[in-house]
Amino acid sequence: MSSSTWQGRDRGLQRRMFGTMFGLGLLYVVFIGVVIAMGASVILVVVLASGFLLFQVFFGDKLALRSMGARVTEPHEAPELHAMIERMAQLQDIPKPKVAIADTDMPNAFAAGHSRKSAVVCCTTGLMDRLDRDELEGVVAHEMAHVINRDVMVMTIAGFLATVAGLLIRFGMYGRMGGGGRNGAAAFMIILLVSVVTYALSYILIRALSRYREYAADRGAAIITGAPASLASALQKISGSMARIPQQDLRQAEGMNAFFIMPVSAKDTFTRLFSTHPPAEERIRRLMEMQARMDSMGRIEL
Question: What residue segments make up the domains of the chain, in order of their start?
C-alpha cells in the first residue's frame, strides 16, 4: 500500500455535491410549496418528509445490508479484510468503518452510512473469491474513498428526495390531495405534473453526481494504494464475471446500483445513458493512464 496520506479533498467532487444538494433543495422548496398551495395538509407533508428523511439517513445502512443479506463481521471472522480496512483508516486518520460480508456469488462491494463514524464497507463472498489480494485492496480503497469523500451521505439524502417525489406521485394517484370538483381535479393534475418534473430533474442530478463520484473514488483508491492497475484489473474481472450471474439475482440487487462499485444492470446503449456509473471500460482506461503517469514520474501525481 502506498505511504501517501490523502484526506479525500476532491474539490471537483465537493463542488458537485454542493451544487447537487443546492439544486435539489431549491427544487424541493418549490415542489413542497406547490403541493401545499394546491391543498395538501402542511402537517402531513412536513411529517412525512421529515420522517422519511430521518429514517433514510439513520437506517439506510441497515436497510442496505439487509437487502444484500449481509452481516457485520468481527476481526477474527475476516482477518485479512479487517486488517486491510484498518490500515487504510489509520492512513487517512478516520474511524475504522464496520466490515460486512454478503454471502452471494455476485462480485460487488459498497459503502453505506450517514457519517464516517457510522460507515460500513461491505464485500460479497463472490468478490473475495475472484480477486487476488492487490485487486481486493483496490476495491476496498475505492469504497474507503467514498467514506472519506462523504459522498455516501449525500447520495443517501439525494436518493431520498427522489423517493419522496415518487411516493407523492403514487399518493396523488390513489388519494385526493385537493378538494372535489373541477378545482380538485386541477389541483391533482398540477401536483402530479410537478411531482413528475421533480422526480425527473432529481433523477438527472443524482445520475450526474453518481457518475462523477465513481471517478473520484477510483482516483482516491489509486492514491491510497499507489496501484491504479490493480483496481483496473479488479473492475475488469467484476465486469466479466457479472455476465455469468443469474439474471434473477442481478434483478434483486438492482436497487443497490447507485452504491455498488459496479452496477448489475445490462449495459446496452440506452441503459448506459441512465446508468448510475460511467462505463467500466472508461474507468479502466483512466486508471491505466494514471498507472502510466505514476510509472513515468516515479511518484503519485494524479
Answer: 11-297
